[in-house]
Structures are given as C-alpha cells and as structure tokens.
Design a protein that fits this description.
- This protein is 34% helix and 19% strand.
- With 139 residues, it is of the alpha/beta class.
- Strands 1-2-3 form a three-stranded parallel sheet, with helices on one face. A two-stranded antiparallel sheet has the order 4-5.
- It is globular.
Length: 139
C-alpha cells in the first residue's frame, strides 16, 4: 500500500514512454504556464541552448534519461522507481544524469548492477540470494 502523499514515478530502461516526435519542452510543457518556465526548468537538467527545442528522436540516450527524470520531477513525483537508469549511457551522459539525480529531493528505488552507482547513491542495498532478500545499510 502506498501512502496518500506519495506521488510515484517510474522510469523504464527502454525509454518507451517518451514521444520521439515531441521536443523536450513539449514533453514537460503541460506542467508549466509557458515555454520560458519549461525551458528554465530543463536547464536544471542540463538542457541548454537549442537542446530543449530538438525532437526527442535526435537526443542521445543520456539526454533522454535526463528528460525522463525532469518530467518525473515536473510531475512532482516524490518516489521514483528507476529500472536500469544508467544503461546505454556513455561516461559524460552518465555523469550528467547522476548530477541531475543528485538534485532530486525524494525517495529512489533503483534496479542497477553498477557498483559505482550503488556506492554513490544507495543508503540501503537489497539483493536476492538463496530464495530470499538480503539487506545491507550503507556504511
């Protein structure tokens, strides 16, 4: 059961919930009064210059990941479920995504296999072992 104040957001690893024909601004426009506010918000997610006006199909996987995270934040989600969020990202894109994620002020449950990402972000790690779930707090 999810509490009444929880606004759940899901980010799929295949990025299939993005409309490839829309621009980054159009993707989040419904959450803002005008395009200027939307572009200012996207700047927090490292979209600068003409990037917010490019069709999503022309964005890199890293840019798309940041856009998905920005959309979840714009929707005021306070609990994120992330499915392999750093898959397919090169090092600069990953660094930018991690920077954007560090700005998020809510709970995050992420399925990842990357130990560096886990060490940097996890307060608690869960894994399946011997038919059960093991839990370890970050030290």
């Amino acid at each position: 059961m999810v509490g009444p104040t929880v606004r759940l957001g899901y980010m799929s690893q295949d990025q299939s919930d993005l409309n490839l024909d829309q621009t980054a601004v159009e993707t989040i426009q419904d959450y803002f009064q005008n395009q200027t506010e939307a572009r200012s918000f996207l700047a927090y997610y490292l979209f600068t210059g003409d990037e917010p006006l490019k069709p999503v199909v022309l964005l890199s996987y890293g840019q798309r990941s940041r856009l998905m995270l920005a959309r979840l934040a714009a929707r005021q989600c306070n609990c994120l479920l992330l499915d392999e969020p750093i898959n397919h990202l090169d090092i600069p894109s990953r660094t930018q995504f991690e920077g954007a994620l560090a700005q998020f002020d809510g709970a995050v449950l992420a399925v990842v296999h990357d130990r560096y990402f886990i060490a940097r972000f996890a307060e608690e790690t869960w894994w399946v072992e011997g038919g059960g779930i093991k839990v370890q707090n970050a030290s």
